[in-house]
Write a structure and sequence with these properties.
Length: 68
């Protein structure tokens, strides 16, 4: 298993957290997503390394921005 941490901007509530968790969680190989609303940190546990573009796309679908 691989763990990667990302920072997402624009989240302001529990619904935001749920949206990001849902979209990122649907990526192939993802086994877990933990989101900290206060810091904007998203910890993704996956089988293997995910492409940054995949995670960024899922975050954008949820309505938020990934900080590069």
């Amino acid at each position: 298993m691989t763990q990667s941490t990302y920072v997402v901007t624009g989240m302001t509530c529990g619904h935001c957290v749920a949206s990001v968790k849902e979209e990122v969680g649907e990526l192939p190989g993802v086994r877990g997503v933990d989101v900290d609303l206060i810091s904007g940190r998203v910890l993704v546990t996956s089988e293997g390394v995910l492409a940054l573009e995949q995670v960024e796309g899922a975050v954008q679908v949820a309505g938020y921005q990934l900080v590069r």
